[in-house]
Amino acid sequence: MARTGRRPGQTETREAILAAARDLFGRNGYEGATIRAIAAEAGVNPALVHHFFGSKDQVFATALHLPADPGVVVAAILDGPRAEVGERLVRLFLTLWETPASRDAFFGVLRSVSTTEQAADMLRGFIQGALLDKIADALDIPPLRVTGIAAHLVGLAMVRYVVQVEPLARAAHEDVVGLIAPAVQQYVDQA
């Protein structure tokens, strides 16, 4: 049985928590890994997990090197008029992809999920639980429409950033927002 309590150093403790989190997320998926289980696996008190990361979402985001806190992303999408959700979402998505550190992290995540089913399972559970379900609930949108939004954005990322199909790859940020945001907004507005 793992010993709980403080570890010798902050860096070692943080890394032990991340290693335990990666292992548990990999074995049990996002929903099946709890803060308490991560702490037990790392041999620390659950309060230390909260101290270093704040939430399970943040542990996951850090463990997979995701570029943004999902809570902040959801709040930014929902902060403002419903009629502008599509524009805010596309603008935020582009901004995240166009920030060098975020772009590198996104490419790392794409590589991981395209090569291992374990990483794909982890990311799928996270996207569903930390992002899509919360957006669907907050906007009162059926889950299928929210996954339609996700499909649009993943397609945009593939064409613009991964495959780099012209003219979309070099189009101005605002032109892309103007092109994609109305389609995303339709998913929000459909009755």
UniProtKB/TrEMBL annotation:
Family annotation (Pfam families): TetR_C_16, TetR_N
Record-annotated DNA-binding residue ranges: 34-53
Protein name, UniProt field: TetR/AcrR family transcriptional regulator
Keywords assigned: DNA-binding
Organism lineage string: Bacteria, Bacillati, Actinomycetota, Actinomycetes, Pseudonocardiales
Organism: Amycolatopsis dendrobii
A single MF term (Gene Ontology): transcription cis-regulatory region binding
Domain HTH tetR-type: 11-71
InterPro entries: DNA-bd_HTH_TetR-type_CS, Homeodomain-like_sf, HTH-type_TetR-like_transc_reg, HTH_TetR, Tet_transcr_reg_TetR-rel_C_sf, TetR_C_16
